[in-house]
Amino acid sequence: MISKSAYASTDLLDELQTTLAHGTVARRVETLRRVTDLFLNGAVDYSEEQIALFDDVFHCLMRHIEASAKALLASRLAPIDTAPPLTIRALAFDDLIEVAAPVLSQSERLDDDALIETARSKSQAHLMAISTRKTLSGAVTDVLILRGDDDVVQSTVNNPGAQFTERGYGRLVARAEGDDNLATCIGLRPSIPRHHYLKLLAKASDTVRARLEAANPPLVGDVSAAVREATRRARSAPSAITRETVIAHALVKSLYEDGRLDEHQVAAFAEGGKFDETNAAIAALANVPVAVAETMMVESRSEGVLILAKVSGMSWSTVKAIINMRDDLSGMDRADLEACRQTYERLRTSTAQQVLRFHRMQQTAGTAA
């Protein structure tokens, strides 16, 4: 026995053939509606081959229909995980945001490559739609941060399902200078790496610092609004010292106490992109508090690293690994390594020790204040 749906499908295919050959725009739109209904009624059960057939049909019909019909198609197909992939891609790359937005913001058929390609070539409205997706990988947010305007970046940072790379966080911290709302949102993200949090706090206004403290009620009675020293604030904030930071510091302490912490271990930490471990290790070898080393490590220039390394007696190859790690994690312009090497070779150990004593005094004064 042949079902009614089978008869309907056969009738529709006959109609489709006639419509594609001789139909008006209005008739194509009506046929598109019926094909969409047919697809949605069985989307869960269709095979890949059947979905590919719908892909071909949708493509043929979309060539000669008005934008409003394509926008309706996009809104109906966007939530469907098994939607025809080529159709979804064509809708996502449409110049009209009314057509592209539903699939850019919802469709699971779009992979990172398609989203990145769209974000690199389409309008700010297209980027805004992408920024609202349920989840966003670091590769996609990198492009949104790089190309997006202030509204797009704010929307991306506000998205709880967004992930960010080290380079992405570096660019965000740079963009947040002078933008209190953005700076606050970045600082409240639980995944922000400690070194980026320190940089954010160092550049933040009193308003931003107050907001971040307000988000952690236990801090209100403990940290005075008059305290401006960024590192002290960061070390007082529970959100700044993550579980990973505590583990990293404990590991370095164990290595140091066992006599196994040396320059080679520092280089290994740096080459692995492990900021907390590298910072704690160089602090231990230079015999300075971790807070002092952090302040010097997150400076925009490389002099702090050179001073700590010289006091620790490190070779240039290790210093270069540390500088490269800072550049990779911060998203800043690459340091001039040759100029750094020449400076490091000219730098006297006695001079480095004198500068380091000055940094220690600053830290002590800041804590006393």
Low-confidence stretches: 1-10, 218-240
Gyration radius from CA atoms, angstroms: 28 Å
Number of strands: 0
**End-to-end distance:** 88 Å
**Helical/strand content category:** mainly alpha
The overall average pLDDT, rounded, is 82
Helices and strands, in order, run as HHHHHHHHHHHHHHHHHHHHHHH
> Percent of residues in beta strands?
under 5%
Instruction: Tell me about the largest β-sheet.
Output: none
What's the helical proportion of residues? over 70%
**Number of contiguous helices:** 23
Shape: elongated
The quaternary organization reads as single chain
Structure overview:
Helix 5 crosses helix 6 and helix 11 (166-176) runs parallel beside helix 13. It is elongated, with a radius of gyration of 28 Å. It is mostly helical. It has helices spanning 4-22, 25-42, 48-62, 67-77, 85-92, 97-106, 112-121, 124-131, 138-147, 150-158, 166-176, 180-187, 194-203, 206-214, 230-236, 243-257, 263-271, 275-286, 290-297, 303-312, 316-330, 337-346, 349-368. 38% of the residues are buried. Among the domains are: 1-106; 243-368, no CATH class. It is built from 23 helices and no strands.
